[in-house]
Design a protein that fits this description.
- With 416 residues, the chain is α/β, with parallel strands linked by helices.
- It contains 19 helices and ten strands.
- The strands form two sheets. Strands 4, 5, 6, 7, 8, 9 and 10 form a seven-stranded mixed β-sheet that branches. The chain has a three-stranded parallel β-sheet with strand order 2-1-3.
- Helix 4 links the parallel strand 1 and strand 2.
- The chain is globular and about 60 Å long.
Length: 416
């Protein structure tokens, strides 16, 4: 499918779909196209955007050259390239930032840390802000991928919860290279009616829903999906087995692979964004997924009036928690604009707007006064102290273990 865009000189953003879209991805692209048509920077698009906005950037530079002045500096001063997770921002945030600052945001999306890391390790991504999860950020910092933040340009850091900032400092000492965007948990999303029809006493708050073949097999006919996120899925399997979710023991990995392969025949697909629309539309009934994405599916089902009731549970055995971090690549070209956007995202009203839209929690303490009560009071989004005791931080892996895990995951996805 060809890229659809408006002229960069007009201030409108690009919508750049990937070819060969699934129906769910096509629906997300359609929403992004409508947003662009309304003058809203492109959002909620499919993940695989291989083409950088070179043509648009060249057009903007050419236009400025015709007008005279310091062309290169002028072009760069009003441009920002962001690479974030799919379905992860309120559309109006980008439009409002652009209106206030005059900075044109090109916003691309991905749906796995592995996709982002591959781009970062290859270098020259062209992005000014990227959003890795903290465990990936940790090893990327060690590889010299990110530049330190200039905290003098981030006064809104004062809004961030110091206790949670201390947690992510385990990945990024002194929070030198990153600021938290949003955070959540990995857990159980399900269609209440279809699960109850097939198993009235289904343990919907237990990892047995996925890792006990006698249980998950009952839901094969209505569709089971699993995140394409090897580190997080491995962590939940190890928790189910009563082991350390951050273990790098080859024996523990082998035990986890045995569990995964035992349930693979009952899994319809392994994907990290397709399940949102599929759960909302009734095309699957059970997914191991990120908390906010399941609540987005719930909201889409309610908006459509299709009668599908969706719920999310944090497993009673425990699960992994993730922190998605805003960071500036070392080779970013628009560093001041990147700082301005990060600081903008930390405004309480902006942070609350994103939380209310995507159903993920924010570190921003003043923002909580503006978060919808049903979200702030939902322990699956803002966990209680008791629930927090069951949440495990997903730490960075060694390169050697990553190779072993990649081999295991390849076998799991292939079912061999």
């Amino acid at each position: 499918m060809n890229c659809t865009r408006k002229c960069a000189a007009t201030g409108s953003s690009e919508v750049r779909p990937a070819g060969g879209l699934s129906r769910a991805a096509a629906l997300r692209y359609k929403r992004g196209f409508v947003a662009a048509a309304r003058g809203i920077p492109g959002v909620r698009r499919p993940m695989k955007h291989a083409v950088r906005p070179l043509l648009a950037a060249m057009s903007a530079v050419a236009l400025l050259a015709a007008c005279g002045g310091n062309n290169e500096e002028a072009a760069e001063s009003k441009v920002l390239n962001v690479y974030n997770w799919s379905d992860y921002i309120d559309e109006s945030v980008l439009a409002d930032f652009q209106k206030e600052t005059g900075i044109k945001v090109t916003y691309d999306v991905f749906d796995s840390n592995e996709v982002l890391e591959t781009k970062l390790l290859a270098g020259s991504t062209g992005y000014d802000i990227v959003v890795p999860s903290a465990n990936f950020l940790e090893r990327q910092i060690k590889a010299g991928i990110f530049q330190p933040l200039d905290k003098s340009k981030l006064p809104n850091l004062a809004n961030m919860d110091p206790a949670l900032m201390a947690k992510v400092a385990r990945h990024d000492p002194d929070n030198a290279h990153s600021v938290n965007y949003l955070w959540g948990t990995t857990g159980i999303g399900f269609n209440q009616t279809k699960i109850a029809e097939r198993m009235p006493d289904a343990p919907t708050d237990s990892l047995a829903m996925f890792y006990d073949p006698a249980v998950v097999s009952k839901f094969k006919d209505c569709g089971v999906a699993v995140l394409d996120s090897p580190t997080e899925i491995l962590g939940t399997v190890l928790i189910y087995l009563g082991k350390d979710p951050n273990s790098e023991s080859p024996e523990d990995l082998a035990a986890a692979e045995k569990v995964l392969m035992s349930v693979r025949p009952f899994v319809k697909y392994v994907h990290s964004s397709k399940f949102i629309d599929d759960l909302a539309n009734g095309e699957i009934c059970l997914t191991m997924a990120w908390s906010g994405d399941v609540f987005q599916a719930r909201d889409r089902a309610a908006e459509s009036g299709n009668g599908i009731k969706i719920d999310f549970k944090i497993p009673r055995e425990g699960t992994t928690m993730f922190f998605d971090m805003l960071a500036i690549p070392k080779d970013a070209k628009n560093v001041d604009n990147a700082h301005a956007f990060i600081n903008y995202l930390m405004r309480p009203e902006v942070a609350a707007k994103n939380t209310n839209y995507v159903n993920y929690a924010s570190f921003n303490l003043p923002a909580q006064q503006m978060v919808n009560p049903e979200i702030l009071g939902n322990p699956a989004i803002y966990p209680t102290d008791e629930v927090k005791t069951r949440l495990q931080v997903d730490l960075a892996e060694s390169d050697a273990f990553t190779q072993l895990l990649t081999a295991t995951w390849t076998r799991f996805k292939a079912g061999q």
